[in-house]
Design a protein that fits this description.
about 700 residues; alpha/beta; Rossmann fold; six-stranded mixed β-sheet; six-stranded parallel β-sheet; 20 helices; binds adenosine-5'-triphosphate; 3'-5' DNA helicase activity; isomerase
Length: about 700
Amino acid sequence: MPAGDSAGAEARRQLALADAHANAAAEARAKAARFGIAELTERRTAATLAPLSGVGYHLLADRGWPGSRTAQVDLVVVGPGGVFIVDTKAWRDVSIQGDRVLRGQDDVTDDLLALADLGYAAEAEFAEVGLAPGEVRPVVVLAGRHGINERVGPVRIVGEKDALRHIASHGTRLTPAQVDSVLARALSYFPQVGASPPVNVAVPEPLVPSPAGSFEQEALLSEDEVQAALLEGILASPIEEWMSFLHPGQAKLVRRSFNGPARIRGSAGTGKTVVGLHRAAYLARTRPGTVLVTTFVRTLPGVMRQTLARLAPDVVDQVEFASAHRFALGLLKERGVTVNLQPQQARNAFERAWREVASDGALGRSSLERRYWEEEIDYVLKGRGITRFEQYADLTRTGRRHRLTVEQRRAVWALFEAYTRELRARRVHDYQDVILLADAELRRQPLDRYSAVVVDEAQDFSCAMVRMMHALVRDSTDGLTLIGDGQQSIYPGGYTLAEAGVSLAGRGVVLDINYRNTAEILAFASRMVDGDEFADIEGVVARGDVPGNVARTGPDPVIEQCVNRAERDRLVVGRVRSVTATVGTSAGDVGVLCVTAKGVERAADALRAAGFPVVLLSDYDGAPVDAVKVGTIKRAKGLEFKQVLLADVRADQLAGAEPPREDASRERWQLLRRELYVAMTRARDGLWLGVI
Ligand SMILES: Nc1ncnc2c1ncn2[C@@H]1O[C@H](COP(=O)(O)OP(=O)(O)OP(=O)(O)O)[C@@H](O)[C@H]1O
């Protein structure tokens, strides 16, 4: 080969090599630019959030993405406000429209899905130590942006300048010990990332330029802004422990999926409502639509709403709270169905029907009081929505101890017909009619508004109420959660879920740690229901759940024997005075509970006369108020107080008293004892009974 040819070939080879190097360099530069931007923005986010470490937060940077060999999590922040999984995005022309995120014209919502998925997985991981699911928050920080604070699905999107305030604003939700336990879990869950792989190119090792100088440019937040944001968080009123940190069993139950209606039960104070509220928040966060939380007592939903507003402020607007009747009335109004609820006129209608067809007949002559027959119609017939005698003729009257003859059933039916005629003639409805109308309306035209329904104190619901709630979600996955305790049933009659068309098929969970009462209070209260058998909604005769664990101890309950009512009033006032004199108990921590409305009136008058602020439970909406709460036991369902006083108990109603022999009286006696059990188990620290 001529010399000129060889020189030419070498020149081309060198040129080709130069091109290859140039291409490699261009590629490396482009890659470096991408990483450089990411590094820069991530560092800026870390720098922005760094002041949080002064108030108890830990910032874990560049941790491995669990389950991935290469992906990284920019920043995991663990502190008093919970866990924040932070991903920084250098997205410029980004806009948020409803539940979608757009970059220019492109929909990039799916880019957030990986972070959302990581959030779900991390929730499960941290539930193992008891962290409530809502305390794990995926956050996207938009580099260079400010004035943004939006939520897309479970992901919060904030501007770079808003990130510090956002995290600090969660205040103190975890104690230092809980932060430590979550941190330990985070350190193992988000693994440390190893060194980067060596640069693999056939060129001399490139010199890595120092991070872009612009990093130190203008501070994102001024010193004052940082201080203000941190202070706001520190001053935020602390939440109660169980709002963020649960028993691991509870935390896992909150997230557990059931492929149809499910039931959570457990004796008083075992955290059923707590789990129900967390579950409502969790369901609201993880699926579109509204979650309905419902219960029987009219005022309880308001109280629960107040609690959820502190527990899960991010989703409280996606959860609707309504008593069964409030819900039914709302539905009927929405559908244009006329309903005229007039409880007093309904009572008059019953009175008249009784006089006309029953007082001189089989019912009037029986040994049972009129009230028994009234309840038969109210709970056994209308509570189920029975409309034909054949349905009643051989009905198993669950929970009704007294057997009825065929003649008596016929007489009940005649009374029922007469009562119904009277109601129609007056154009009025009773409480049960409201539910039956709504139930019928839902059958006529279903309602698809709710993704889930959580029923608390489900044992108070009638069969028709359960059917109505079930109709809202049918057998959908996690649609219906019934929470309750048959031992706390205080209304006559019963039914089985099968009658309501609901099948649990084994989807039941029992909670068995009592968090509320001292062992002394619980032991005392349990004597009220010792050996009590009741008809459980799952169709079995149940004995009541007994908690396996009661964590706290305290003084024995106090029983004061009073000679008359005036003395009892004085002693009630004296007891309230002495418990509110102790450190840590104020008027708002005291509940004075009565069996009768008259008792409520007396106690409230006596306390007011002694200068105590009083709020009646019938007016209480859960907003913190430093006044003694006074009300009937029925109104106190689901509530709790540090100190409870029972102000109108009779000696013969207390433990040790012999149950009556006659079936109907025995049934009533047991209902009353369960009511007293409910009242006593409202007490966290102290229980007092004024007995005549
Ligand atoms: N994991 C927990 N850690 C600490 N306290 C808890 C926990 N779970 C529940 N509690 C406390 O126990 C109390 C009782 O819980 P909750 O009201 O949910 O019980 P419940 O089973 O619904 O009671 P009831 O049936 O008697 O109304 C709560 O107010 C809370 O103070």
